[in-house]
Batch of 4 targets.
Target 1
Amino acid sequence: MEDCRPLNSDNRLKHRPLTPIRFFGGLICLLVFLSTAFMFLVYFGPIIAIILRLFSVHYCRKATSFLFGLWLALWPFLFEKINRTKMVFSGDVIPANERVLLIANHRTEVDWMYLWDLALRKGCLGYIKYILKSSLMKLPVFGWGFHILEFISVERNWEIDEPVLRQMLSTFKNPKDPLWLAIFPEGTDFTEQKCKRSKKFAAEVGLPVLNNVLLPKTRGFCVCLETLRNSLDAVYDVSIAYKHACPSFMDNVFGVDPSEVHIHVRRIPVKEIPASEREAAAWLMDVFKLKDQLLTNFKAQGQFPDQGPEEELSSLKCLVNFIVVISLTILFTYLTFFASIWYKIYVGLACASLASVTYFGIRPRPVIGIFKAMSYCKKTKK
């Protein structure tokens, strides 16, 4: 039912053939996504993520969530309405607007994008954040977006990553800020070769031998849970599976795969998860044992249990969102190329500022907070 073996692109059977219409449609989609992303970033990014943040992190995040949530919603629109990929949800019915830590298996390079389909249905699309490898922050345009959306970059070296992770997580403690922090504890996407190495290591050290997932790395999960526990409502254990084949990014763009994406969610109240690091690590290992069994059953049965708690996306809402994003992009394009020279100067300065804050990892602190800290230091010295 699900085949994630690494196959060559010339002999891999696609769910839909790559016709000339799909090819040119995919190129148009890429052009739309790149142009809309660029215009939203240069016209909204500096104002929201730099200027507004100097006054309030909370309202900066509210504005970022709303405006860039409009752009992010283009992806579920592409998946479900244009490519006709069927999204099948199962498991617990989860409430809207919770603050959660989301742990998911990592089947392929685009798993994280399908979490947007779930977040959109819960009104939390703009609040979802990922822990990702630092090389992705270097992507042109998209790296700027990852920075503005406050994704956490890691080097995959725990000595370097731990202090960075703790510092970034400490900024997400405000319970008034909705948060979906998504992590992939396996640390990399699943392949047969990685699975063999994982099973060999597990057998050597006496850990569970898993067939459909890799052994989870527990330290990052434990730090996230420890830092945010008091402000979280729950942990969502998400299992992702694909019918026919695991898609690549370009499969999504051209609409050739996947035919169905199945997402199973278990909601665990945070108070039910052990507090100690050792017990929390053991708890995560048990979660992945259950996840492995769920995926085994999916291969045999073609579905997860307790299917169908989420509704279809509204075609009308998706279309209205698309029109709004395209209209703003057309307006910004006109201003950039056909209006006053000052717009060209602004775009140039915006690009320079976005590139700088992303490269140096700059996130301004509110001016009021700085003054309070200075005042506090003066009082303590007295």
Note: Confidence is low (pLDDT under 50) at residues 5-11.
Target 2
Amino acid sequence: MASTLQLKLSCPPSAMQSSISYRRPHRTWSAIQRMLGRVRQQWKLLGFFEINEQHEYFKFTCMLKEGLKASIQKTIDEPVSMESQKPSDFQRVLKQMHEVIPSSVLLQGYEMRTYAAPVFARFRQYLGMMDTDFQKSLTCESSYLQFISNSKSKADFFLTFDKRYFLKTQRKREIRFLLTNLSKYLDHLERYPHSILVKFLGVYSIIAPQEKKRYFIIMQSVFYPHEKINERYDIKGCQVGRWTEPTVDSSEVIVVFKDCDFGGKVITINQEQTWLLQQVKLDTQFLKALHVIDYSLLVGLQPLHDDDQFLDNTLGNILARTRLSLSCEYPRRNIPRVSSNTSSSSSSSYEHILRLYPDYLSPYLRPDRPPEQLIRSEGFMRNVVTPFLMQNSYEDMSCIVGSALHSSIPSDLTNESFAAQHRRMLPASKNPLHTIDGPDYRYYVGIIDLFTVFTFRKKLECLWKSIRYRGQQFSTVEPSYYAQRLCQWVESHTI
């Protein structure tokens, strides 16, 4: 033992250093691997993973981009008319072959199919979207992002780099269900243009050599823009399995919580509560008629700062919001757009407001000056908006402006017909149809996952769960009860 110890001590320093330097790279590499593992895990928890050349879906997303670019270009070159829709448009299939894609990916060619292309082109136009912007977002050079989901459907989720649109793979039967009920879906959104149902913007498929045919849909992201959202919830109105483990490693991790995590929180939206309750009832009744269950209500919370609240209550913003909400920015397909140069209705609106508040508004309101220009004037903000808000409530001003601009909407959207539209004051945001402003928070709301039909198999699953989870609330129930339960959740969690 002594000789062994002497042998170790007698080793020259250079040999010991060599031994140490030989072991250090191994320890360093292990540390790097652990660090990369933590980074990768954090990306997964954040929910977004960049699809670069090393990613398994890089080839597929390259095909998506090239195919979508050509498909949308077709609608750009041959724009559709809002008044010329035909029943045959719902059955149309556009087939396009693609041979050349980025040289870093070796392919023999593939076929992209676009389903009901004229119908979805009109719907995007109906939503006020430009196909050039739609194409740019979907086909930009930046990589798609993979969305890591805890969904049981095993579908693949992709997100455009600007996080505005979702691309989701779907089963063939789900695509068939959507296309079969597409006319009903669009009719519902036309009747209730401020519906919170997710907006489907296109249905496609890709056929590549030696690969299975893949279907996918494009839809708007309810949580857009997402940067300031600090809480996200996926609500089904039940308790079984409806909770999420909170993360402890990083405060920046994005987690989508569930029903049981919501706890005693409430959604405070004041005058918008009645609208939201009614709209959720209308949307769930529509899904009940299609025998759909297992859909989710997404809820995102974004704190409103003092400057956001002030701007939200300014007269110029109220004018813009009222015009957006009431002046047919989202027109029915069979109703022509209101001409923007109707000076008579504009004059009557100005005269109405001017008659109510001549001292404040006379220096700024003129028939030849669109309301949108008001907010650009620093003098208007300083001399009109601030004093006005000191003496008048936001609700009073909204009512005044709304009545003043009501004359600009089409005659067949007034009175009972307009009430059936069930509209509201839309916030001046990038995603107005899915956002509701309360006194302290901006809430992002939307109903997603509309493809689960209450079939015989689901009835058996309901029976089995009623035995296993006796006395508890679970997701697989018949459509009318599912709709009623979600409405009850919204009613009990909003004020």
Note: Residues 184 and 286 are 9 Å apart (CA to CA).
Target 3
Amino acid sequence: MTIGRAFRVLMLMVALAGSNAKCPPQDSAPDGPRRVILDLDGGGDDAWALVMLLANEWRYNICLQAVTCVHGNARVPDVVVNVMRILESLNRLDVPVYVGVNEPLLTPGPNRNESHFFWGDNGFGDVDFGHPPSMDALQPVHAVERMNALFHQYPNKISLLAVGPLTNVALLYKMYPETRDKIAGVYILGGNRHGVGNTAGTAEFNFFRDPEAAHIVLNNSPMPVHVFPWETVLVHTFPTRWRFEAFEQTTNPAIEVLNGVEYEVYAEEETWTPCDMFVAAVFLNTSILQTVQSYRAEIELQGSVTRGMMAILHHVKDVSKHNVIVIDRIDHQEVQRMLIALNHA
């Protein structure tokens, strides 16, 4: 090896040491990994989505390019802490984390009463872990700016998984409209297709927290977005007893963290709903999709009890006008297998 080549190899190793090593800096090979950005709001189900992606990078040939944080289940400073705790537990501080928007597009946002604190005040059941996590993965660039830069660096190579309120994504669309055409695909946990809500009204939580952002994203994405709505979550719940028994003995340190969180949060609940995890599973393994349908959908912005609800316009038959692909049913047993496999990931 020549001195010049050795120097270049050394510089590449140094660069990779400070970056996400699973994500190659260049797409030189046709069989390179599928890149993904996870935009989340820091609840326990967000953590399950994060763990699902990181545990399956090699199996499904994907790489987590970045984690971006948004308000929702918790305030953004708490979201960052929760993400860092999971990354630290997995020794994956190579994954860069970016701080995003801490409030809805229109403020003040909706009242956050007790029913909207399912994951506690800090998103992790207010559990005292005894020490703060490392902040080594936290980056100084704003989440929206970094998302824009990454989509330009890897045009049509990065998919976006948005499992919190869509404020970061809406700002990306409005600040950098040319970037919309550079996104490989958008997968959302949010909305509803039958008017079944999990808030004080008829809206699903993520859309309820920022209806205008949801409206912007659904009406400005150049391709139909994959939507995993609340009603589909309800069809695919797990017994809470099964959840605790399945993960009681685990060698996965991130699941040990989540055991502490969910022993607190799910103590009185009969069903376990790892909502955001489903979106990660669908992205990883599209073979689990069983029933999907495209529609034209709009977000209700005015109603006193329906604000934030996703309304399906069934009369719009022209597929060219459809803006969502609603996921109605997935292979529940295969998802269960993917979950159990995390125990020893």
Note: Confidence is low (pLDDT under 50) at residues 1-18.
Target 4
Amino acid sequence: MKLGVSCGKMDKNLNEKLADLRLEMGSKIEVNTKLQYESNEEIKEGRFQNPPISNDYSVLVPKNAEADEEIKTKTTVEQNKKDNNNMEKKFEKNFKLIPFVSFIRRQQSLFPTTFGLYFNHNEEEFITQDMKIETNQFGNTFQYHPSTKGKEDFHGRYIKYFIRKHLANKYDVELVDRFAEHVIEYPENYQTAKNPKLKEAIKKHYKIYTDKNTTAIDIRYSIKVVSLSRSIFGERVVPRKEFHTYYENLLAIVKYLDSLTYNTMEMYPELNCEYFQAQSVILFDGDVAFEIMVSKYDLSAKRVKYNQKIIQSILHSLSYYKRTGKKIRKLVIYNPLLGEEHVVELKDIDFELLEEALDKDLTAFQSNRLHNNNNYFRILY
């Protein structure tokens, strides 16, 4: 199955349309609210820790080597200070609201310039214009256990937690879950305040879940309990009865994960930036983003969902590049319920153009009257 067309040059008309973006930026809304950093590293060091060093020294003819070195040192310091000031000014956007990437990917109408870079709208769905999706079939479509009826969302989250646990063991990386840790630390903010058994169960099974000596296939119940943290965090009432997954389905997932030949894995790298808050991301070998889909869709709905995953990965790639100078070159979407793996090559991404488009859309979004609505604000986060 192939969706879209081969990688190529970005649409000429779109490039011309965005050529004047910098001029339009002069009329942006001024926002003074400071961006809230989440990581301790950012709080201490600032968002950009490696500013560029300029080699453009003043053209002078010193009398001796010592004078030459002194002048070069002085001009270098002054140039670096100027570069740092320019960088600070460039990223002094400090928007009032910083949405999650998951919000951006679902709101094409609010981010039309950004989506317009990569998708053509044909009334029913967004189709990639410069990329293709290659599909590999690894197994049969899962059959839901009868106990999952009405609990498909909870089941899907459980499968994601199962996959993360197995990958953490395979690549020997620390496994953490910020939702579980927050629910454990602040039980009074959630339904666990009125349900001490649930509170203690999450605390107990989270220790089992994060223990490197336990395996996913052997602690299925613990993973199930911990996965409820995401729903509790989102203020959803958890199921009263346990739901199940057929054992052979879980074995099929383990078989696929064990077949992966990547050398390294990075789980949940810091990818927040001034435009958005990143989702939980798994990176293989520093340039492959691994996404998990855990629902059964018809073909039309699948295309929309996959395209949303593509735009999410492109945005993550922007942030990753700004932080590390490295590019995410491939997106792998694994859907265990359908036994499918979808691979997208992320080529020829113009980060400067993408950043200008994102800046334009997010600036316009700040003035949207809906962001004063409390319910709408909650959707963002």
Note: DSSP finds 14 helices and nine strands in the chain.
